[in-house]
Amino acid sequence: MEFFGIKKMGVLRPYDRTDAEQLGKMREGGVYRVRVSMPRNIKFHKKFFVLLALVFDNLPEEIPAKAPDGQPIQIRTVDDLLWHIKMQVGHYEQKVTLGGRVTYEAKSISFAAMDEAEFSDFYNRAVDVILKYFLPETNAEELEEMIAISF
Prior knowledge:
5 helices; two-stranded antiparallel ribbon
């Protein structure tokens, strides 16, 4: 069971009538495990995807980073760009195949996977990666201005 709450005068209260009904289903004196997180801001989520589109549309001819074999890194889609960003910020799981090969699987940035604080941290680290590897001639303020214009 999940419900939204609002903290008022030091007490956590249901956010609306539906949440009050959920809370009312809990028996008095019962022991419950509660997960508290700030719900994600949909506008912030959309802002991130505006950022990705902006970066993708302005990728340099050749990305400064190279693959281990010395070949240039190819980014053909926004999903490729997102994958590279996730890998660089460490938002992945390391797994080992039955044959012992190490693989890396990007984690989700969905609403269910990250709360607002986690997404904010991811966003800030993603901006750092973007400025270092994809738009090295741009600073954070210029990038935020470009996002604001596109958003």
